[in-house]
Amino acid sequence: MDTWIKSKADQFAQAAHQHVSAVHQSASKLAEGVLDSVGGAPDDFRKDLEFREGPLGFTLEGDLVVAVAADSQAAQLGVEIGDRLVKVDGYEVPSYESGFEEQRARALIAKWLKEMPRPGILTFELPESDVEDGIPESPRNDADSQTDASGAAKAGAGVLQAELQRVQEQRKKLAAELQESQERGAALQAELEAARKDLAPTARRAQELEEQLQCAKAQNKELLAAVNVGSAEELTRLQRALADAEEAARARTSAAERLQTQQAQEVKSLAARLWEAEAALAASRQQVEPLEQELQGFRQAHEVELELLQKEQERLQEQKQQELQELQGQLEEQRLKAEVEMQTMREELQRSQDLLAEAQVNAAAAAVEARAARLAPPAEAPVAVPAAGEELEDEELRPLDNFAEVADLRKRINLLETRCASLQRRLRSEALGSGPRPSSRPGWELKVAAAAGPRCAALAVAVHGVALGSLRGFTERLLKSEAWLWVFFAHLVVLYTIAGSCSFSSASLDAGRGAVDSLNAQLAAKAAGATGAQSLRGA
User: Which entry of 96, 116, 184, 388 is 20 to 30 Å from 32 by CA?
Assistant: First the structure.
């Protein structure tokens, strides 16, 4: 096994050196002289065919065309059975000698044909019979041959120069292939060492078997010696023992040979897998390069987009800051206007209350004067005017002789009081503008009038109507504007959040009560500010 691996490695190295030496010699010959006679250039027996997209239409056995499909590109371009493929898109098809090199060349040709860009040019060489038929007969006249040779030499100088350049490029490629072959040889050498290490137990086993065989031979000699002096039975027994020993030795030897063959096959499979891994690595590198370029483009585009988004975010933040400042300024102006309007409304309310009190006093005085004018005789002095809403007692009136007249006077007094009360309510509604209707007067008015008097009751009803009208107006405006409604709810949430945090952070009940009081004060201040803002907006 070791000998076979060494021989294969030596063959690879020798073939590579021979290939490089042949290329060097051909390049030297082309550079030194000019062809003595030109019967036809080698390229005359080659044809370059351009294949486009689609199936090629021919089948190769190595580099030889063995089948051409009808109505295919190959048939239309003139490819025939027996033509030899020599170039694939400008790359020379490698030659081969051994079976391993042939497999490698076939795989390389298949890979080139698969990855060849379309349209691509394939170069075919005509069969040897066609080449021999195409070679013209050499001229018999020596003078003509010399003339043709010199003309061909002059005309082919440029061709030889181009051929020299091509050969130099091919030398570079072959040098690269030689280096690759050396690297593969090193890898194979490493595998050889590993195989040797794996085969060391087998070699030791074979040596042991050989020692056993020598022992068996020695025993055989002893048996032969014993035959001369021993009995026939002893000789038969020893011969049987010898046969058994030889059979066991042969079985062990065959097992060792089978193991060695199996390991040789494993080495071959490892070499094939190594070549496939190298081909896959080259293909993966070709696939990774465009992917890396595409990834770089995506990364650059993402960076540009991110920069644009950052600029847009900064611009939006500046714009929002400006809008917030403008809204704060507008809110401050509205707050000032609301305070001014609130002060004006308070002054108007005070004037309305003064006018209401004066009207109530005048109405009470007029009622008393009317009653006095009906009850008193014309010559009698005027009586004192009682307070508004008070009834004259029977003992304060002059005694009347006719009770029917007294009843009529009381009815008229009640009627005048009712009319005075209606006039007072109408006056209050006209003064306040948005006061409650007579039908919606509070039920506690009679209780307050009985406890504190009609003036206090009227004043309490007026204050209640003003406060209720303001709250209703604020609520209606708040419901009409969705934005202010959200602001109102938001500040309620903020206030309740503050209240919750204060209640959790309080250490005692007194501290909690203080937080609630402060919350109520803040809520009242916010409600007053919101009322002023809504009044300003409604105005």
Answer: 96
Q: Structure tokens of 388?
A: 């508004």
Write phi, then psi, for 446 (nearest 5 degrees): -65, -40
User: pLDDT-derived band of residue 297, with 50, 70 and 90 as boundaries?
Assistant: confident
Smallest CA-to-CA distance from 160 within 296, 35, 262 is with 35
In whole angstroms, give the CA distance from residue 289 to residue 296.
Answer: 11
- Per the CB < 8 A criterion, the answer to whether 35 and 79 are in contact is no
Task: Please check the confidence at residue 254 and state whether its pLDDT lies above 80.
Answer: yes
The continuous run of DSSP H or E covering 120 comes out as strand 120-125
* Residue 106 predicted with pLDDT over 50: yes
As a whole number of Å, the end-to-end CA separation of the chain is 110
Q: Does the structural domain 2-197 have CATH classification 2.30.42.10?
A: yes
Return the closest-CA partner of residue 488 out of 539, 520, 519, 534. 534
Q: Which helix (H) or strand (E) holds 306?
A: helix 232-375
Q: List CB contacts of 162: < 8 A, sequence separation 6 or more.
A: none
79: tokens are 């490819």
Q: What are phi and psi of 135, to 5 degrees?
A: -80, 125
Angle at 59 between CA 69 and CA 125, to 5 degrees: 100
> Is the separation of the CB atoms in 42 and 156 below 8 Å?
no
Q: Cα separation of 124 and 86, whole Å?
A: 6
Lowest pLDDT segment from 227-231, 454-458, 509-513: 509-513
Distances (CA, A) of 285 to 117, 275, 298: 17, 15, 20
Provide the CB-side half-sphere exposure for 40 (13 A, CA).
13
Token readout for 42 is 């080698």
φ and ψ at 33, to 5 degrees? Answer: -130, -175
| pTM across the whole model | 0.23
Q: Which residue do the tokens 């005085």 mark?
A: 365
Distance, in Å, from the CA atom of 65 to the CA atom of 79, rounded to the nearest integer, reads: 8
